[in-house]
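Our working data are protein records whose layout never changes between entries. An example says more than a description, so a record of this kind follows.
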Amino acid sequence: MLLRTAPGHGPSGPPPTARAVRLARALRGWRRTRPFWAGALLILGGAELLVVPLAPWTVLVGLGLGGIAALGIGAALAAAGLFLWFLPHTRHYVGIHAVILAVVSFAATNLGGFLLGALLGIAGGAMGFAWTPAPAPEPPRPHSPEPAPLRPEGPPRSLAAVLPVVLLAGLTVPQRADRVPAAGTAPRTPTTVTTTRFAPSGLTLAGVEEVRTADGPRRVMVLRMRAASLSDYRLRTHDGGAEFALDVAELHLSGDVTLYLTRFSGCVQGLVCTTFTPDTLPVPPVVPPFVFLTDVDAEQALVTSDTIVADGLRIGPAPVEEAGP
């Protein structure tokens, strides 16, 4: 008795759906390397905000400024979703602003697309901000003839749960007094620094350390970054005698940039104004990776940078009205 098989499904030759299977695997791999569902929710929320003012029955409600705002916010949310798909490394910056736009849409449009668009935008922005990429696979270890040592049984995730707590606790522990920056000894009195806009790149709050001064060690906050741009930068010294003044229209720091500050105040994203000192840092210290500050006023003990570029530099004694006692 002979058995017949469908054409293309025999032992010879791949099945006709092999290309579709490869495409599905490629799409699955692409989806897992980015906040796909967060971007999908943002695109849906933006589309909902765009469709509501264009529907004929909304004439009863009246477009007005709410309809114009819905078009702008809807397009921005849809663009944010595309950013999460194709530029996943911008997820923190995009997620924060998407949530802000979704909340604003509730008041600026027809109740945020009758709540649906606003809720989708808030959920998508929060998911995009919280998404983290999967860890890269470890390289294969070379074969060893010796038997592997016995490991105690137990869930390995327990170490992963304890390690973040240990790292965060280490950030809040004061550093030793003999840990001095490479720049050397700080001045007796910190300099005063003001700038209208401070835009760092790769900003991290390293914690609290102590720097050496002529009057002994002083506690400072340590801010590290890859680069920073400062507009209308003004520096004034207060270390006794005649004061020294430095004014720069645009100051650009790049390389290994480290700021040692005794006080720092400014408006985050130009909206939320706050002041930090070594004794009033948040626990644990958290700084968004994409942030800029306006109206910055700080007391600076030291600053180190590989490269400093100053545009419009003016150096001289401080004006008499600005000089301290």
